[in-house]
Q: What sequence folds into this?
């Protein structure tokens, strides 16, 4: 129940565990902020539930800051370095891959 006492409608979205199973065989980078602690514990549980990739491709980057507080100094350097390393190792070496036929690129933010 929500704080007002009304029951929440049941979500029709698939369970998180079934969604995570779709990541099997892929390299995954999960970025988790250590603050607030309750969210950090949830993020660590998601990381633990991730299936391993073909090369042990389950990666966790823990940072002190979050979207709300921003990244500063060493955390910003750590973040930038981790992103570059992850994609340098995960993307094809021979250039960009082509978008599958019938699946246009979706722009999420402009």
A:
């Amino acid at each position: 129940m929500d704080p007002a006492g009304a029951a929440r409608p049941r979500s029709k979205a698939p369970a998180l565990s079934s969604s995570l199973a779709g990541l099997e065989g892929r390299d995954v980078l999960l970025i988790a902020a250590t603050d607030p602690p309750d969210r950090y514990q949830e993020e660590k549980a998601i990381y633990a539930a991730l299936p391993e990739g073909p090369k042990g491709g389950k990666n966790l980057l823990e940072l002190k800051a979050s979207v709300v507080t921003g990244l500063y100094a060493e955390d910003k350097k750590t973040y930038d370095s981790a992103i570059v390393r992850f994609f340098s190792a995960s993307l094809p070496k021979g250039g960009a891959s082509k978008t599958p036929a019938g699946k246009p690129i979706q722009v999420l933010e402009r």
